[in-house]
Amino acid sequence: MTIPSFVIGIAGGTGAGKTTVSRLVTQNLGDDVTRIPLDNYYEDRSELSFEERQEVNYDHPSAFEWELLRDHLETLLEGQPVEMPQYDFEVHNRKDERTTVEPTDVIVLEGILALHDEAINGMMDLRLYVETDADVRILRRIRRDVLERGRDLEGVIDQYLSTVKPMHERFIEPTKGHADLIIPEGANSVAVNLIEEKLHAEIEGNAMRNWERGSLERELAEKRSPDLDADE
Ligand SMILES: Nc1ncnc2c1ncn2[C@@H]1O[C@H](COP(=O)(O)OP(=O)(O)O)[C@@H](O)[C@H]1O
Ligand SMILES: O=c1ccn([C@@H]2O[C@H](COP(=O)(O)O)[C@@H](O)[C@H]2O)c(=O)[nH]1
């Protein structure tokens, strides 16, 4: 059983480069790391029509199911697997299927409000905030939302001005105050290499701890077995 030893949070505005940073710092770490996109914990909106879902404010903290996320992180930290929801941006709703996530040495939580919740911040060992200028972020978002999330230009602009920008200023930007490190301009290679090295060292250290725990458990079992034999 793997008990995760290192939880890292990566927050920042839309288009800042959170997903890119999280992908780059974990891509060489194989199965020892689990990436949890906060987006998967958007509330289920199946009771609403597509038109109603288009009107939801997805940048307000109330858009997320925090209780479920806390519960899943706690379960993983106890060494147990969870059934993580999946999200479909094109229809603004959760998918029907879930993915089984096994506990791994390192857990990376990534999303606009990854540093918002006090209890979740308390579970993290390293809190990062990716900071990128607003003009760069909106340009990236237009391109991504049109090409990958089924939106049109007018829709992206309306949503940006009505909710994305004001919520960024009110809720997301202030979480920078909870960060241990601020990464400028997203995926800068110096920051990415340093974080990757740190995660690598954590994984090696945790493998050793898990091995020691395993051999201690084997030793105790061996000491107990003569008594068990005697009882039979
Ligand atoms: N440093 C960068 N330079 C150029 N493009 C980038 C950079 N970082 C991210 N992007 C691009 O910007 C878009 C948004 O990046 P992403 O990592 O998804 O941001 P976020 O997860 O913060 O919304 C993606 O299309 C990505 O390829
Ligand atoms: O149904 C939805 C859910 C979210 N959004 C927008 O997505 C971004 C968060 O994703 P990033 O990858 O960090 O950009 C958020 O700003 C929401 O506005 C959405 O449009 N529809």
Automatic annotation (TrEMBL):
Residue ranges of domain Phosphoribulokinase/uridine kinase in the record: 7-187
GO molecular function: ATP binding; cytidine kinase activity; uridine kinase activity
Lineage: Archaea, Methanobacteriati, Methanobacteriota, Stenosarchaea group, Halobacteria
Similarity comment: family membership: Belongs to the uridine kinase family.
Principal localisation: cytoplasm
Positions of ATP binding: G12, G13, T14, G15, A16, G17, K18, T19
Annotated compartments: Cytoplasm
Enzyme class: transferase
Superkingdom, taxonomy of origin: Archaea
GO aspect biological process, one term: CTP salvage
Cross-referenced Gene3D superfamilies: P-loop containing nucleotide triphosphate hydrolases (3.40.50.300)
Stated name of the protein: Uridine kinase
Matches recorded under HAMAP family: Uridine_kinase (MF_00551)
Reactions mediated catalytically: cytidine + ATP = CMP + ADP + H(+); uridine + ATP = UMP + ADP + H(+)
EC number: 2.7.1.48
Pathway the protein acts in: Pyrimidine metabolism; UMP biosynthesis via salvage pathway; UMP from uridine: step 1/1; Pyrimidine metabolism; CTP biosynthesis via salvage pathway; CTP from cytidine: step 1/3
An example Gene Ontology CC term for this record: cytoplasm
Keyword Ubl conjugation attached: no
Entry keyword annotation includes Thylakoid: no
GN (gene name): udk
Keywords per UniProt: ATP-binding, Cytoplasm, Kinase, Nucleotide-binding, Transferase
A Pfam family assignment: PRK
InterPro entries: P-loop_NTPase, PRK/URK, Uridine_kinase, Uridine_kinase-like
